[in-house]
Amino acid sequence: MLNIVIFGAPGSGKGTQSEKIIEEYGVDHISTGDVLREEIKKGTELGKLAVSYIDEGNFIPDSLMIKILASVLDAKGKDIKGVIFDGFPRTIQQAYALDKMLSDRGESVSIVIGLEVDDDELIHRIVLRGRTSGRADDNAHTAKHRLENYHSQTQPLKKFYINAGKYASIPGVGDIDEIFSHIKKAIDAVK
Ligand code: AP5
Ligand code: MG
């Protein structure tokens, strides 16, 4: 299976590039942000719990997030070509949990696609999207807080995956198709 982690700061293009990867490789997509927003929309207990974290730009606690991911992954079954993990892992604890979940299934992370975008561009994209997205976390104030959390808790994972020999650094600014052509090269090299 092709197990791709798409990694990057808020607004770096993880969702945008995931769509292209799905189209090209026929893999399934797990966006933990989308999963949580769907639960909020449905008004489930999980949604009620998640909303205060998401709206403030804070992370859902690891233990809960790991359980959610495991159940979404299990629901996919075995008859899939692979998975793009979008927005997970976000902490070292989540990265270890993902390794364990995959190895229990006889699988491993194939590659980590790291989208590199500077903070000013990220804030600009998020504020722009906030005009139409309806996401309570798409405003300059919360975006800055999301970025702080990214830098303190998520960015250290880059080193973790570099050390594992799995990190592909992709410039994430400019033409979307051109960015994807770099991603495709990196994936084809491990396929
Ligand atoms: P999540 O939904 O994952 O949000 P995020 O990581 O903050 O990232 P975004 O979805 O905002 O951006 P993206 O990288 O997907 O970029 P996109 O393609 O949309 O998480 C939301 C929240 O859920 C978290 O804050 C947390 O509370 C919680 N959560 C989720 N996972 C969790 C976990 N594992 N643990 C704990 N909590 C968790 O692009 C952004 C914009 O830019 C779009 O408008 C797009 O059109 C535009 N764009 C894309 N590419 C380009 C380009 N090349 N040039 C110009 N514009 C571009
Ligand atoms: Mg996204």
Supply the key terms.
191 residues; alpha/beta; Rossmann fold; 5-stranded parallel sheet; binds BIS(adenosine)-5'-pentaphosphate; binds magnesium ion
Topology, element by element:
Layout: E1 2-8, H1 14-25, E2 28-31, H2 32-42, H3 45-56, H4 62-76, E3 82-86, H5 92-104, E4 111-116, H6 119-133, H7 140-154, H8 156-163, E5 167-171, H9 176-188
Parallel strand pairs: 1-3, 1-4, 2-3, 4-5
The CATH architecture is 3-Layer(aba) Sandwich
Coarse shape: globular
Provide a count of the helices.
Answer: 9
CATH class: Alpha Beta
| Helix percentage range | 55-70%
Adjacency order of strands in the biggest sheet: 2-3-1-4-5
What's the overall average pLDDT, rounded? 97
CA radius of gyration = 16 Å
**DSSP strand count:** 5
The string of secondary-structure elements, in order, is EHEHHHEHEHHHEH
Q: In whole angstroms, how far apart are the ends? A: 9 Å
The CATH homologous superfamily? P-loop containing nucleotide triphosphate hydrolases
Q: How many domains, as an integer?
A: 1
**Uncertain segments of ≥5 residues (pLDDT<50)?**
none
Give the CATH topology. Answer: Rossmann fold
Question: How does the helix and strand content classify structurally?
Answer: alpha/beta
